[in-house]
Specification:
Distance between the termini: 101 Å
Radius of gyration: 42 Å
Number of strands: 12
Order of helices and strands: HEHHEEEHHHEEEEEEEE
Strand order of the largest sheet: 5-6-7-8-9-10-11-12
Strand content: 35-45%
Shape: rod-shaped
Oligomer: single chain
Number of domains: 2
Helix content: 10-25%
Structural class: alpha+beta
Length: 331
């Protein structure tokens, strides 16, 4: 009997010794790499991988042997979580911000393995587990795309035509002109030429004026628009009167008299300095053809008194204007 007991004890010890390496191997199986990500995901979001690893390390229940797989598709992120009891789930995520909340939800409420008969059936869309974050309907964001749209244009050329009206110093004008700018990293440099017909508000003969200016400023691109602030010096010269009424007295009883000679035309005035300020709001700034609305102001002395005919309009000392125009330029 004693010999039988000794043989039984030896067999039991041998069985326990044989089972011990098996348990150790199982433990080593769970100690393997828990997160697998393809090269595209690893290069794009390395910090997110560290956060996911920290999240798994902080759990001591379902995540002990959880396997997380991350794959990039053309427009989505495929997240797969597999637990040691055979349960697994897959999510299609549109944004990188949804990866960590979805992982936390899947670790709390994972799906049961599908029956063998339904494994080969393709699913039209993955089933959402209770508590999981629903994928966003927005496309995968390219975080650098917004920066590219709003960064200043390195080099651009543009030509604009406009028409507008000015009022100030007791006069009103209607004119048209052209602008041309060179844009370099958001800074503007160019010139403007404008012709106006001035008329005093109190009545009188209208007169033309030509204005040339050199302008510089800055451009800020907003969402679908661009704001330009410009200023610069210029010169303006008054032209000829557009119309003038002449009268002559004729004595019907006297001998026929020759008509009076026409009055000599009034020469244009000497150039006077002007200061121009402007603000322009352009639409679709990245298009080749675009439109804009602008406000401007001009300051400067009036034309020389010796060059002004009685009742004619002199250049205003100040004026404010509004204009509309179109631009053709580089993207």
């Amino acid at each position: 009997m004693a010999r039988l007991r000794s043989h039984f004890a030896a067999a039991l010890l041998a069985a326990l010794a044989g089972a011990w390496p098996t348990a150790g191997a199982a433990a080593e199986t769970c100690a393997g790499r828990a997160i697998e990500a393809d090269q595209t995901f690893s290069e794009r979001w390395p910090e997110l991988l560290d956060r996911l690893g920290t999240e798994l390390a902080s759990r001591r229940d379902e995540a002990d042997c959880a396997r997380v797989t991350l794959r990039m598709s053309p427009s989505t992120i495929l997240l797969t979580v597999s637990l040691r009891d055979g349960r697994s789930a897959t999510r299609e995520l549109m944004r990188s911000e949804d990866v960590l909340p979805s992982l936390q939800a899947l670790l709390l409420v994972p799906e049961r393995p599908a029956p063998a008969a339904s494994v080969t059936k393709p699913r039209s869309r993955p089933t959402r587990a209770r508590g999981a974050i629903a994928p966003s309907s927005l496309p995968l964001r390219d975080e650098s795309a917004g920066e590219r749209l709003t960064e200043a244009r390195r080099l651009g050329l543009e030509l604009s035509l406009f028409t507008g009206s000015r009022v100030g110093d007791g006069q009103v004008s209607l004119g048209a002109g052209a602008q041309s700018f060179i844009e370099l990293y958001g800074w503007l440099l160019g010139f403007q030429g404008r012709a106006d017909a001035y008329r005093p508000l109190s009545g009188g003969d209208p007169e033309t004026a030509l204005e040339l200016a050199v302008l510089g400023g800055k451009r800020w691109e907003l969402a679908g628009a661009a704001l330009d602030l410009v200023a610069g010096p210029g010169v303006a010269t008054k032209g000829f009167a557009l119309s003038r009424t002449e009268s002559a007295h004729v004595d019907a009883t006297g001998p026929s008299a020759s008509p009076a000679p026409p009055a000599p035309e009034e020469p244009s005035s000497r150039p006077v300095p002007r200061l121009l300020l402007g603000a322009r709001l352009g639409f679709s700034p990245r298009s080749v053809f675009r439109t804009f609305v602008a406000m401007d102001a001009e300051l400067g002395p009036a034309s020389q008194p010796g060059n002004d005919a009685e009742g004619s309009a002199s250049l205003p000392r100040f004026a404010f204007g509004l204009s509309l125009g179109a631009t053709v330029g580089t993207r």
